[in-house]
Amino acid sequence: MASFSYWRTKRYLDSVGEGFCLEKWHSNTVHLGTGTEHGCHHVAPVKIPLEEIKNNPYALFNHSHKRQVRQEMLQGKKPDECAYCWRATKTQDRVLQSSKYYNWENRDQATGEYSLPKYLEVSLGNTCNLACAYCGPSFSSKWASEIKQHGNLHHIGYVPTITKDNPYKKAFMEIWPNLHPGLEELRFTGGEPLLYHEIFDLIKDVNEKCDVIINTGLGVPKDLLEKFLEKSSHIDTVIFAISGESAGAQAEYTRHGINYNDFLKNVELISKQHNADIELMTVYNALCLESYTDYISDMQNIAKVDIGVSELTTPSFLHHSLFDVNKQHHLDFLKKHNSKAHSQLESILTKEQKYDIVVERENFKRFVNAYDQRRNTDFTQTFKVLGELI
User: Are 94 and 82 in contact (CB under 8 A)?
Assistant: First the structure.
């Protein structure tokens, strides 16, 4: 049953229009490396016209497409790109998102075509020192470099990033002094954000009451992490959203380029920071089935952690349904340790699957064979159980 907050927010939104959503004013995700923006994870990123930011750098968050959709909402219309929500007959995500504190508290400001975000997620680019098996060149420069040398392995579309004289990054830095005072939540993503020198100048400006989240693989040199911790020490809450879901040699295989022992030392360093919290962003996939709980246990032995579980869907040949290994054990483990994560994994495992297991296992085998050849790794030696199944 939906809460009072849900129905209160829905009545408010519907008084403007059944397609109205506060996210369109107060929430932005901007990818500076590709010059794209979207304010909602249900909506595909939109290319920000270069001529618009040249004339007005605030077009990063107020480009013509965003202004048009806002105007449609204010006129009581249902924008086509928002169909995921307004077609829903039960719980609508536009209501849940609009109920968030940074949206609801600033609802009276959602009255025109222009706005600055209260929640901002910013990707500075695809620079990354890891080439994780389920990632790709749009989010990893190491992947991009390998593909240029050896050809595509994932067969995933690549959106090239702007690496020199990036006008989108220039526009962002120009408006940053007027942007950061009003932020209530700021998330850095990548690539690997800690590899960008700009992040250290940005983080020192953030007001102490703004919640900061950093998406990180944490496979970075210790000195960079120490520098970030020092620059962010004035902020009340900094959440390290750490990507990972396997342990030891399997982590080093899947998250190619990481040293697992150094990774754990970085986690320990964060655990000693007075204002830092740790969230595990685990992407449930075929390559974590053997050591998923080992990974979580390693992290829990170092620090108090929150756990989130999402389902890998692309590439399909790494989907968890290819192998039935340890899944009940994972459920039982999470039930003891984290009810939210248990519910998330249970939902993933009980969902009807659409994959042709025979075909995808063949694709999986071709992938790991090519992966081993390129990276001088050995799948069957690293994954003893899965190695017997392919």
Answer: yes
Structure tokens at 367: 């992938």
Tell me, what DSSP letter sits at residue 161? P
- Laid out side by side, the sheet with 36-38 consists of 46-47, 36-38, 27-31, 119-123, 185-189, 211-216, 238-243, 276-284, 305-311
pLDDT, tens digit (0-9, with 9 covering 90-100), for 306-362:
999 999 998 999 999 999 999 999 999 999 999 999 999 999 999 988 899 999 999
* Whether 188 and 48 share a structural domain: no
pLDDT at 198 over 60: yes
* Residue 148 confidence class, pLDDT cut points 50, 70, 90: confident
Residue among 244, 168, 231 nearest 202 (CA): 231
Distance of alpha carbon 22 from alpha carbon 270, whole angstroms: 34
What end-to-end distance do the CA atoms of the chain give, in Å? 45
163 vs 150: CA distance, rounded Å? 21
Q: Single out the residue in 79, 104, 121 at which a domain terminates.
A: 121
**What is the maximal distance between C-alpha atoms in the chain?**
61
pTM for this entry: 0.93
* Same-domain status, 157 and 38: no
* Residues 310 and 281: beta-carbon distance below 8 Å: yes
